[in-house]
Amino acid sequence: MRQLNLLSYNVQAGIESRQYSDYFVHSWKHLLPHPERLINLARIAPLLRQFDVVGLQEVDAGSLRSSYIDQTQYLAAQGAFPHWYRQINRNLAPFAQHSNGLLARPRPTCITEHRLPGLPGRGVVVAEFVLDDGEVLAIGIVHLALGWNARRRQLDYLSQLAHTYPYLVLMGDFNCGCDSRQLRNMVSRSGMSGLDCELKTFPSWRPRHNLDHILVSSPITVVSARVVDYALSDHLPISMCIELPEGVCLAESPVSATAASR
C-alpha cells in the first residue's frame, strides 16, 4: 500500500445539527441519552467504510449520554475496521467521556497518547505503522482548544512532535482556519503541507470556516483532498488521499500489546 485514503470527522457525539438554534434546542443531548444518537452514528458508518484510516473527534467512550456505548468501538464494528482505539481526554463519568477515536484497516504497531498543553481535556493520539524501508508512518488525531492562548501552545507542541517522525499525518479539528497566524506558523516550522483555505467544514449546514485539516510531512504526497458533503454533525468530514514516496509502502507486521484494539 503506497496510497492511503484518510478521513477526519468531528461527529459531535452522534448529535445531528442542521442550524445554529440546534445548539440550544438540543443542548440536553450532550448530557442525556437519546435514541436518535445511535441512528445517526449508523448513518455515518457507511461513509467510513470507504477509507483506510479514520480520525474521529468528539466521540463518547461509553457514558450515560451515549447509553454506555463506546462510539469508537461501535463505528469500528459498523465500518468493518479490524483495529480501533479511543483516547479519553475529558472524563465526566458517568455523564460524558469526550474522546478522540482511531479506526484503521492496516495494523498499527504502536499507539501513543499525548496530553496537550492548556487546561485538561485536549489530546492527540498517534498510531505508528511500519514501512518496508524500516521507517515509521505516524498518524495523529487531534482536537485543539477553543481559546487562542491554549491553542498556540498546543500547535507549538505539534510542531515539535512533527520533527520526531520522518512520515507524519496530523488530522482533526484544529478549531482554527488557514487564516490563523498560529496555524500557519506551525505548518511553516514543521515543514508540513495540506493546508487549504477552500476546504470549509463548519458549520455543516452552511460551511464558511475551515476548522478541520489534514496535514502531511514533506516526504508524503497529497494526491487529492476534499470536503465530503455528509452533514450529520455540526462539522463536515474532510478526506485526503496520500501517497508514500516511490519504493516505500506499508509493511505488514504483528500487532504489539500497545497497539491492541481497544
From TrEMBL:
<keyword id="KW-0378">Hydrolase</keyword>
<dbReference type="InterPro" id="IPR051916">
    <property type="entry name" value="GPI-anchor_lipid_remodeler"/>
</dbReference>
<dbReference type="GO" id="GO:0016020">
    <property type="term" value="C:membrane"/>
</dbReference>
<dbReference type="InterPro" id="IPR005135">
    <property type="entry name" value="Endo/exonuclease/phosphatase"/>
</dbReference>
<dbReference type="GO" id="GO:0004519">
    <property type="term" value="F:endonuclease activity"/>
</dbReference>
<protein>
    <submittedName>
        <fullName>Endonuclease</fullName>
    </submittedName>
</protein>
<feature type="domain" description="Endonuclease/exonuclease/phosphatase">
    <location>
        <begin position="7"/>
        <end position="235"/>
    </location>
</feature>
<dbReference type="Pfam" id="PF03372">
    <property type="entry name" value="Exo_endo_phos"/>
</dbReference>
<dbReference type="InterPro" id="IPR036691">
    <property type="entry name" value="Endo/exonu/phosph_ase_sf"/>
</dbReference>
<keyword id="KW-0540">Nuclease</keyword>
<dbReference type="GO" id="GO:0006506">
    <property type="term" value="P:GPI anchor biosynthetic process"/>
</dbReference>
<keyword id="KW-0255">Endonuclease</keyword>
